[in-house]
């Protein structure tokens, strides 16, 4: 039971931390690309703006990587954005492997506890016989508690693991779309449409 309890505490900590860190408005702030385009259009883009962009959010870090290389060719900008995007994606996936591991091993820990408990029950049968059903029933129920505990930890851990994986994929796609939009407008390959404007 102690390893299962430890896994449950770790899983709860990871779930809480990821729920906070993977909020859409934190990762992909609304109208961020429009704000960058306003800076460029008004010729206000400088190192101070780029620094604030880089430290503000994962999306801002990706945009800042492209803006630092804005005077180079399109391929250089895209390469810088992709490199930074890979690091941002890894940051979004932080602790998810641990959560997936907990979801996988806690049922096995529960099963192990049940097997050990059944071994103890059979050792009691060997020494005392089957004359007292209450002792046997208590030992069996105690053994099965570990399996129930393992499943109780594993099921929500697996659900949140899948949920976070899907959310990370969605956020990465949105960051890629916004970064490509910025590059294409800066390179004159598309017009800044109404979705790209800073709201009033």
Unreliable parts: none
Instruction: Report the end-to-end length measured between terminal Cα atoms.
Output: 57 Å
> How many domains is the backbone divided into?
1
Mean pLDDT: 86
Assign a percent range to the helix content.
over 70%
Tell me the number of strands: 0
Strand content: under 5%
- What does the radius of gyration come to? 27 Å
How do the SSEs run, as a string of H and E?
Answer: HHHHHHHH
Number of helices: 8
Main sheet record: none
Quick recap:
This protein is mainly α and 200 residues long.
Structure explained in plain terms:
The chain has one domain. The protein is built from 8 helices and no strands. It has helices at residues 2-21, 24-27, 32-41, 47-56, 58-68, 74-92, 96-128, 133-186. Helix 1 packs antiparallel against helix 7. The mean pLDDT is 86. Residues 57-176 form the MotA/TolQ/ExbB proton channel domain. It is a multi-pass membrane protein. The chain crosses the membrane at residues 95-123, 143-164. It comes from Thiohalobacter thiocyanaticus.
Features:
200 residues; mainly alpha; protein transport; transport; transmembrane helix; transmembrane
């Amino acid at each position: 039971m102690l390893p299962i309890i430890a896994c449950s505490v770790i899983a709860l900590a990871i779930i809480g931390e990821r729920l906070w860190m993977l909020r859409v408005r934190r990762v992909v702030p609304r109208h961020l690309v429009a704000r960058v385009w306003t800076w460029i259009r008004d010729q206000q883009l400088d190192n101070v703006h780029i620094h604030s962009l880089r430290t503000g959010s994962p999306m801002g870090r990706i945009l800042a990587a492209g803006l630092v290389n804005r005077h180079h060719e399109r391929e250089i900008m895209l390469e810088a954005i992709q490199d930074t995007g890979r690091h941002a994606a890894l940051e979004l996936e932080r602790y998810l492997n641990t959560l997936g591991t907990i979801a996988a091993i806690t049922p096995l820990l529960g099963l192990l506890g049940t097997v050990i408990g059944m071994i103890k029950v059979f050792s009691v049968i060997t020494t005392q016989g089957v004359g007292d059903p209450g002792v046997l029933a208590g030992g069996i129920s105690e053994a099965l508690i570990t399996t129930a505990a393992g499943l109780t930890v594993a099921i929500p851990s697996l659900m949140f693991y899948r949920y976070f994986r899907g959310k990370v994929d969605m956020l990465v796609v949105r960051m890629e779309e916004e970064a490509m939009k910025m590059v294409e407008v800066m390179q004159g390959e598309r017009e800044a449409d109404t979705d790209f404007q800073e709201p009033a």
